[in-house]
Design a protein that fits this description.
Largest sheet: 5 strands, antiparallel
CATH architecture of the largest domain: 2-Layer Sandwich
Number of domains: 3
Number of helices: 11
Number of strands: 14
Order of helices and strands: EHEHEEEHHHHHHEEEEEEEEEHHH
CATH topology of the largest domain: Uridine Diphospho-n-acetylenolpyruvylglucosamine Reductase, domain 3
Helix content: 25-40%
Strand order of the largest sheet: 4-5-10-6-7
Distance between the termini: 53 Å
Strand content: 15-25%
Structural class: alpha+beta
């Protein structure tokens, strides 16, 4: 039996503004960690994987817990918004269903009510469920810094397993998701490693926009999770579909290309060969589901 240790000693800092939080992190870059939901960090602290002197809490910053939507600016998700709030959001379920579905598959209700979307992104786990559908929607992230802010595509956040691009004194503040054009279908499908509550062994997000006249693909995004060091775009499969009217043969070809682009490993959750085959299967399923939605819209 494994017994959890108590948390190491730390001091808690509660900033009154985002800039104050960034400045504190900059001044204590080797000894401070941001705590959002804490669902990963606190476990790592108990096992002494990390032992920060300071925890910087962000619950006192209301701008990080907001979800807003506008037809022009799209969806804006504060970094402290929980998976449950995304899962329950009416506008998200109406216009960004695949994102809501992905968040509904994160862990247990307890985890979804504590864990944040921003934390899921910054944790940079290859298997993060919220990331593939956000990438498929061409989401961007706003990163606040002690001196200045910056905006970049979500896919540029990830460097490797557990590694993100945030610099000292930077905080992920917001995720922005543009409104998809008409005749768009978006889905997220996953294969859990063991049970429905386990992390994904394979995840596939697809977004397809069709030309209303010809039925050809105007835009295709295929994003693979848990099968490479970071979530990745399946660009060869996307290129095979873009500009073409998709049929069974083309979908099968794109699914094979996705499997070829995946870079999985064998671990306790699944083997390399099985993950590769499941990329092919799930990509085919996701493409067919997204096409059905796009054709019906």
């Amino acid at each position: 039996m494994i017994y959890l240790k108590s948390l190491p000693t730390f001091e808690y800092f509660s900033p009154q503004s985002l800039k104050e939080a960034c400045s504190f992190l900059k001044a204590h870059e080797n000894g401070a960690k941001i705590v959002a939901g804490g669902t990963d960090l606190l476990i790592d602290m108990k096992y002494r994987k990390v032992t920060p002197r300071y925890l910087v809490g962000l619950r006192t910053l209301p701008e990080l817990s907001r979800v807003t939507f506008g037809d022009q600016e799209g969806l804006r998700i504060g970094a402290m918004v929980t998976h449950q709030e995304i899962m329950d959001g009416p506008i998200i379920n109406e216009k960004f269903k695949s994102i809501a579905l992905a968040c509904s598959q994160v862990g247990t209700p307890q985890i979804r009510n504590m864990g944040t979307v921003g934390g899921n992104v910054c944790n940079a786990a290859p298997s993060a469920d919220s990331v593939p559908p956000l990438m498929a929607y061409s989401a961007t992230v706003t990163i606040a810094g002690a001196e200045s802010d910056r905006v970049l595509p979500l896919e540029e956040m990830f460097i490797g397993p557990g590694e993100n691009c945030l610099k000292a004194g930077e905080i992920l503040a917001e995720i922005r998701v543009p409104v998809a054009p008409p005749h768009t279908g978006a889905v997220y499908v996953r294969l859990p490693a063991r049970t429905g509550k386990d992390i994904a062994a394979v995840g596939v997000a697809v977004l397809i926009t069709l030309d209303p006249t010809s039925g050809a693909c105007n835009d295709v995004k295929i994003v693979l999770g848990a099968v490479a060091p970071t979530p990745i775009r399946s660009r060869k499969a996307e290129a095979a579909l873009n500009g073409e009217k998709p049929g069974e043969d083309l979908i099968n070809r794109a699914a094979l290309l996705s499997a070829d682009e995946a870079k999985p490993i064998s671990d306790v959750r699944s083997s390399l060969d099985y993950r590769t085959e499941m990329v092919r299967v799930l990509t085919g399923q996701a493409l067919n589901q997204a096409l059905a939605i796009a054709r019906a819209s």
